[in-house]
Design a protein that fits this description.
There is one protein chain. By secondary structure, the protein is mostly helical. It has one domain: TerB-like (Orthogonal Bundle), CATH 1.10.3680. The protein is about 65% helix and about 0% strand. The radius of gyration is 15 Å and the shape is globular. The mean pLDDT is about 85. This is Tellurite resistance protein TerB.
């Protein structure tokens, strides 16, 4: 029997695709990361995901942020939050550089942390410091 992907998996993948577009450039390394992720979650041929994944449709930053809000629905679980941070971090670092728009997205995601004193705070603070360096350089 085929394991059907969950709605949360699909939402997460849409956010990741939006994150890849957030700096206005869909990098080849990001594309590879997203295709592997989509295949792993059995979403590569999904009619909504496919055009986004293969750059047939661009994603505007506002759309990415809207998907982010929908994903959390106002009441994120710690697991939802950690899954998203891990996935976005993997995507952002897949091309070896972090654009300021990507750092802003991570900062935005931090607002959804249901446990404001989680172990991820240290990681996010490091990312914020990197962001500050990008902004000031």
């Amino acid at each position: 029997m085929n394991n059907k992907p969950t709605n949360a998996s699909k939402q997460l993948l849409k956010i990741l695709i939006g994150a890849a577009w957030i700096d206005g450039k869909f990098q080849p390394e990001e594309r590879q990361y997203l295709i592997k992720t989509a295949e792993k979650q059995q979403l590569a041929d999904d009619p909504e995901i496919r055009p986004l994944l293969y750059e047939l449709k661009t994603v505007k930053p506002e759309e990415c942020y809207r998907w982010l809000e929908e994903y959390f629905g106002g009441y994120p679980t710690q697991e939802d939050y950690e899954n998203l941070i891990e996935a976005i971090s993997g995507l952002i670092y897949s091309d070896g550089e972090m654009a300021s728009e990507e750092a802003k997205l991570l900062t935005e995601v931090q607002q959804y942390d249901p446990a404001s004193t989680s172990s991820l705070d240290k990681v996010l603070k490091t990312v914020q410091k990197l962001y500050q360096r990008y902004v000031t350089s």
